[in-house]
UniProtKB/TrEMBL annotation:
Name under which the protein is recorded: Aldehyde dehydrogenase
GO molecular function: aldehyde dehydrogenase (NAD+) activity
Alphabetically ordered keywords of this record: NAD, Oxidoreductase
Sections of the chain in a coiled coil: none
Domain (Aldehyde dehydrogenase) ranges: 16-435
Gene3D superfamilies the record matches: Aldehyde Dehydrogenase, Chain A, domain 1, Aldehyde Dehydrogenase, Chain A, domain 2
One cellular-component annotation, GO: cytoplasm
Residues annotated as signal peptide: none
Pfam families attached to this UniProt entry: Aldedh
Reaction catalysed by this enzyme: an aldehyde + NAD(+) + H2O = a carboxylate + NADH + 2 H(+)
Originating organism: Selaginella moellendorffii (Spikemoss)
Length: 479
């Protein structure tokens, strides 16, 4: 799509927002209900498109793509009246008589740039929040998931308001052209590298951004853990979550040296129970998205420092974009596989002598999107929570915070800024306008010049909520 066409699309959407239609509660509810209707009628189409793009099993597609979007819509429909209502807050004594409130209002016209690894979820889920907040939306699906992108571009105009909600397909040129437009909010999901580009473009217009990025999400396993349960939960979080191609997937494991051998053996048993002796034949695991990512992952395994560290897996088939679930044992901390986000079916497992050493390793790296801890000890849990920083944390499981709509989901530092999900999605696309209202009937003359010592004392008492001082000033006994 040419830059001039993109500019025209953005202009049309902005004009529609200016009409005020998207602010209507009825309009918002109608769009959200239409998304639910779209999902109900086209669940099979969505599943097929995601399978074409990712080879994603139907169960995984429902659990991680379809259900979360449908659930987000239903939650917003149920609560939208309360979310959009003004919230009263207590005013300062110095402003009395007055009432104070906060009223959420839409930012305006927002741009949502989606990612390829969850091509339906990461397109529609942010849009639910944007629509619920009353914005007009331009969505850019990922060109790396072309089947899902095409499906979204075909279906959304059939179900949603095509004047206020538009889809722009394409690659880097289209994304570049979109970023050159004036937006009231940009929501981007993807890599830190592109996140920097998005933020730089947004800065030209002082446009607020939400950046959902990634990073190397660590797992810490201490000696008190139930290894059988822990390996199941880590494995499904890694290979059952887009075959490791997810921003919240476990990226590496730091396991207490006293149980590291047992942990690796338990993980091998778990992988065999999940995917059989030959995972290549399993119907329950996604494939690598494309040849570029396949070659990148193969490059990590072919590193001379890594080839001897393969404890399990390592098999690959370029024709099917297949890399077996692979365990690496005690890789060097300065190796390439430990320097970049893996985003694939490779899991380094590193022995540590103590929780303190594990914490030091985590803290020596950029802040991750997620941190996972497995322990039965409350003191260990409290220590890790207190001494590490991450976008989110799960104790004794992996990734489930992503589905918990009562929790904010987002990164910190290198792993992103801002959060969404549930009510937090509505807030991400809303400006909470502060409103203070006062009557004419009471006007305190002490706030106006010329200022006397008595006025200064009276105003000081008001600002400091010194009720006794206020009374004494009024009685002429102070100041």
């Amino acid at each position: 799509m040419e830059s001039a066409v993109i500019a025209a699309v953005c202009g049309e959407v902005r004009g529609d927002f200016k009409s005020g239609r998207t602010r209507s509660l009825d309009w918002r509810l109608a769009q959200l209900k239409s998304i639910v209707d779209l999902i109900k009628k086209h669940e099979e189409d969505i599943t097929e498109a995601v399978a074409v793009d990712m080879g994603k099993p139907s169960y995984e597609c429902f659990a991680s793509e379809i259900f979360p979007v449908k659930s987000a819509c239903q939650l917003a429909i149920k609560n939208l009246k309360n979310w959009t209502a003004a919230v009263n807050v207590p005013p300062l004594l110095a402003t009395l008589p007055a009432s104070a409130s906060m009223k959420p209002e839409p930012f305006g016209v927002v741009l949502i740039i989606s990612a390829w690894n969850f091509p339906f979820l990461l397109s529609l889920d942010p849009m639910v929040g944007a629509i619920a907040a009353g914005n007009a939306v331009v969505l850019k699906p990922s060109e790396m998931a072309p089947a899902t992108s095409a499906l979204i571009a075909r279906l959304l105009p059939l179900y949603l308001d095509k004047s206020a909600i538009r889809v722009v397909e394409g690659g880097v040129p289209e994304t570049t052209a979109l970023l050159q437009q004036k937006w009231d909010k940009i929501f981007y999901t993807g890599s830190p590298r592109v996140g920097r580009i998005v933020m730089a473009e947004a800065a030209k217009n002082l446009t607020p951004v939400t950046l959902e990025l990634g990073g190397k999400s660590p797992v810490i396993v201490d000696s008190s853990s139930d290894l059988k349960v822990a390996t199941r939960r880590i494995a499904v979080g890694k290979w059952g979550n887009n075959n490791g191609q997810a921003c919240v997937s476990p990226d590496y494991v730091l396991v207490d040296s006293s149980c590291s051998t047992k942990f690796i053996e338990a993980m091998k048993d778990t992988l065999k129970s999940f995917y059989g002796e030959n995972p290549r034949e399993s119907m329950d695991i996604s494939r690598v998205v494309n040849i570029n990512h396949f070659n990148r992952l193969v490059g990590l395994l072919d590193d001379p420092n890594i080839a001897s560290k393969i404890a399990h897996g390592g098999e690959k088939d370029e024709t099917k974009l297949y890399i077996a679930p692979t365990l690496l044992e005690d890789v060097p901390l300065d190796s390439k596989v430990m320097s970049e986000e893996i985003f694939g079916p490779i899991l380094p497992i590193i022995s540590v002598r103590s929780i303190d050493e594990a914490i030091d390793i985590v803290n020596s790296r950029p802040k991750p999107l997620a941190l996972y801890l497995f322990t039965k000890k409350d003191k260990v849990k409290e220590k890790v929570i207190a001494e590490t920083s991450a976008g989110g944390m799960v104790v004794n499981d992996c990734c489930l915070h992503f589905l918990t709509t009562t929790l904010p989901f987002g990164g910190v530092g290198e792993s992103g800024m801002g959060s969404y999900h549930g009510k937090f999605s509505f807030d991400a696309f809303s400006h909470h306008k502060a409103i203070l209202t006062r009557p004419f009937w009471m006007d305190i003359m002490a706030r106006y010049p010329p200022y006397s010592a008595h006025k200064k004392t009276f105003i000081r008492c008001l600002l400091e909520a010194d009720f006794v001082g206020v009374i004494l000033c009024l009685l002429g006994l102070k100041g």
